[in-house]
Amino acid sequence: MFNKLLLTMIKKKHIFIFFISCFFCCSGLFAQEQKETKKRDSIFYKERYGLMLGTDLYKLSRSFYDDEYTGFEVNGDFRFTQKIWFSAELGYEELKFDEDFMDVNTSGSYLKFGGIYNFYDNWIGMDNLLYGGFRLGFASFSQDLNEYRITVRDNYFAPDIRQVNRNFTGLSAVWAEVQGGIRVEVLKNVFLGAHVELKVMITQSSLPNFENLNIPGFNRTYTDSSIGAGFGYSIRYLIPLYSKQKTQAVDY
């Protein structure tokens, strides 16, 4: 009787071990199958890295329709990481400030450099940008004071207009600015963009009995504020220098 009971228990133990072994075997096969499925559902693609060169379309177009303005800008961006670009702009501007009380010409060049961060998560194969960035700007310019008018409160006297034709050279300015904008690839490696700028003047050359009315790259200045603003439209061409392979999982 005892031998029969012992034999029955041994058989049940073998059956239990068999089911446990089958369970772990099936679990391993299922995990391996899932791993292989994930591999099959992953998409590999190449992300372009290189130099993006372009110009400011607003400054070019304004030079044609505004007789009191001449300017151009060349800009460049280098893609450092998937999200970060290093940026720089080099330009020249000449603007005539002709109002009832003053006639001034401003001309000079500027350089801005900094970087941008792309907040947009692109689909596979796309490199559009929705970005924010920072710039540090430098300008070297001159101011030509042609004439100014002394305010006369009594209309009995004729306007007092002083012809001076005085030139102030060797002027400089430094400012910081933040940018926000978009860039969209409209053709292969060709991007159209638009952006806005908010600027804060850090330092500028002071003039005797006269103030800087315009600063190339900064735009209009005001006596009671160090804040400036601007905007632009651009066209850029991406020169691919190398690429990095990326992997993106696709869920079904």
Topology:
Elements: H1 2-40, E1 42-56, H2 57-65, E2 69-79, E3 84-98, E4 102-118, E5 129-150, E6 160-187, E7 190-204, E8 214-215, E9 219-220, E10 227-249
Antiparallel strand pairs: 1-2, 1-10, 2-3, 3-4, 4-5, 5-6, 6-7, 7-10, 8-9
Q: Mean pLDDT across all residues, rounded?
A: 82
Number of helices: 2
Give the topology string: H per helix, E per strand. Answer: HEHEEEEEEEEE
Q: What share of residues is helical?
A: 10-25%
As for the number of domains, it is 2
Report the major sheet: 8 strands, antiparallel, barrel
Q: Could you give the count of β-strands?
A: 10
Identify low-pLDDT runs.
2-7, 9-20, 22-27
- The strands making up the biggest β-sheet line up spatially as 1-2-3-4-5-6-7-10
Using the coordinates above, name the CATH class of the largest domain: Mainly Beta
Percent range for β-strand residues: over 45%
CATH architecture of the largest domain: Beta Barrel
Output the radius of gyration: 34 Å
Structural class: alpha+beta
For this structure, the quaternary state is: single chain
Q: What fold name goes in the CATH topology slot of the largest domain? A: Porin
Shape by Cα distribution: elongated
Span of the ends, CA to CA: 60 Å
